[in-house]
Task: inverse folding
């Protein structure tokens, strides 16, 4: 009996050892792949920061991962001579204003499409998605006519209104998915207790949708912060340029001021990075909720 059991135990031990070996190999391959992905993501950022800290002579030498002499001349040129802080201020005003207005309008619109039943409801939802998917290159001509008739050309107010044309449909479509995942019974109970429809929206639905609202706000802010085409069309004054325009005008003809360009890229990325860092918990919850509830 012992002679039969002993080979069986040896077989089990060998299988266990092979399974452990495969598990270790799988873990090693997984970590190697993750490290490579992290390097692919982080290296462009590191290279951008490195170029921004190099002098013009070092930039055009043989590429090196570490600057020979760290200098802040590129940042000084960008801030003092190119007035890049004005571009950042303009982008903050435009992106923040368009985000707040867009989320307010989108919350009411998404609530109407999700909670009420009326003729053409599905068609309106599809039209909102179609409006978001329409390329901006097809919209700038009619938008130019509207902005000109409103006498809002070359102004931040006009640019905010223009940005609402793509941010509001996007925000509405995302918020519809979040609102569908919240039971209507909660609002009905609040209205039974005496709350109005708007009161139920403000006190029940919006607090429960906070991760989704934060995620939509950050996506909308990022889209307005990075937008170039419409800003290039509607803004002509130097003191009203946004961050993408400020970076675009650092390129003159075939001359690329790589040092100031990379310094501007670093400065323009900092607000968005800080925003994502502060709201990363809500971003994860909001994206996961939208994926399940959409």
Result:
């Amino acid at each position: 009996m012992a002679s039969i059991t002993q080979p069986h135990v040896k077989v089990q031990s060998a299988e266990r050892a092979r399974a452990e070996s495969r598990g270790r190999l799988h873990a090693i391959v997984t970590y190697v792949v993750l490290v490579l992905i992290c390097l692919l993501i982080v290296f462009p950022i590191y290279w951008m920061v490195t170029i921004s800290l190099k002098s013009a002579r070092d930039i055009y030498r043989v590429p090196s991962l570490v600057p020979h002499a760290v200098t802040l001349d590129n940042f000084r040129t960008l801030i003092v001579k190119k007035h890049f802080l004005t571009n950042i201020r303009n982008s903050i005003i435009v992106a923040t204003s368009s985000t707040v207005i867009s989320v307010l309008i989108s919350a009411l619109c998404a609530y109407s499409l999700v909670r009420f039943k009326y003729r053409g409801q599905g068609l309106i939802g599809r039209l909102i998605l179609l409006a978001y998917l329409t390329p901006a290159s097809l919209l700038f001509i009619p938008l130019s006519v509207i902005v000109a008739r409103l006498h809002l050309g070359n102004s931040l107010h006009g640019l905010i209104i223009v940005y609402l044309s793509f941010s509001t449909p996007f925000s509405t479509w995302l918020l519809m998915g979040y609102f569908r995942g919240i039971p209507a019974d909660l609002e009905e109970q609040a209205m039974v207790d005496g709350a109005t429809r708007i009161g139920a929206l403000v006190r029940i639905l919006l607090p429960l949708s906070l991760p989704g609202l934060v995620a939509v706000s950050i996506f909308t802010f990022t889209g307005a912060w990075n937008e170039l085409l419409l800003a290039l069309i509607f803004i002509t004054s130097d003191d009203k340029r946004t961050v993408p325009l400020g970076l675009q005008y650092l390129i003159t003809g075939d001359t690329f001021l790589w040092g100031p360009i990379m310094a501007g890229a670093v400065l323009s990325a900092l607000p968005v990075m800080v925003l994502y860092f502060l709201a990363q918990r809500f971003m994860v919850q909001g994206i996961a909720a939208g994926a399940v509830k959409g």
